[in-house]
Design goal:
The chain is α+β, with helices and mostly antiparallel strands. The chain has one domain (52-189). Helices cover 16% and strands 40% of the residues. The strands form two sheets. The protein has a five-stranded antiparallel sheet with strand order 8-2-1-9-10. A five-stranded antiparallel sheet has the order 3-7-6-4-5, with no helix packed on it. The chain starts with 20 loop residues before the first helix and ends with a strand.
């Protein structure tokens, strides 16, 4: 009988060890957790649009084009910078603190801020609460961020955005505070 010739240049590949059963279970749980996380994020977005209250905010585009991200708008809302007199907390806010902005309808369809709270306040009637975070604090005001400051422009709207225009942004605010942009309409050229 002849044995197969094994040279140091061409070694016989070793068989890969099989994973123990408990490692396979953990691997399956990790994959399932990742899939559930992605599905949960998508479901939360759809639930925000379906279950949320729809409001309209006035805004202006800040930067209509970015070479890395394509056509998008950085939006600056009227409620992005608010006077410090609207703060209802016991202590002054600091950067990155949570802020809950109480909004009331001022004119048909448009909402304005009437208070800023460190925790979600109770609402009555047509009031809604928009969750954000404090970006800057200065002597007489606050700059807030809501996670709604970037909007990717569809191709049909790109030509309209070459000129800076005032915008009306419709957002949907879910009962748990998450918000999502549902529609953007142009109003006129900013002067």
């Amino acid at each position: 009988m002849t044995e197969p010739l094994v040279s140091p240049l061409n070694p016989v590949p070793a068989a890969a060890p099989a994973l123990p059963a408990h490692h396979r279970r953990w691997l399956l749980w990790l994959v399932a957790a990742q899939v559930l996380f992605v599905l949960g994020v998508a479901a939360a977005g759809y639930a925000t649009a379906a279950l949320g209250r729809s409001i309209t905010l006035q805004t202006e585009p800040v930067d209509p084009r970015d070479l890395l991200y394509g056509d998008h708008l950085r939006l600056h809302y009227q409620i992005s910078e608010l006077p410090g007199s609207l703060w209802r907390g016991a202590t002054l806010p600091r950067r990155k603190d949570a802020a809950y902005v109480l909004l009331e309808p001022q004119s048909p369809g448009d909402y304005a801020a009437v208070g800023i709270y460190p925790a979600a306040p109770a609402t009555t009637g047509q009031q809604v609460v928009l969750r954000g975070s404090v970006q800057d604090v200065w002597r007489r005001g606050l700059r807030l961020r809501y996670g709604l400051e970037r909007y990717y422009v569809p191709e049909t709207m790109t030509r309209q955005m070459r000129h800076r225009r005032r915008l009306r942004v419709q957002i949907s605010i879910a009962p748990w505070g998450q918000a999502r942009i549902t529609q953007v309409d142009t109003l006129g050229v900013v002067r």
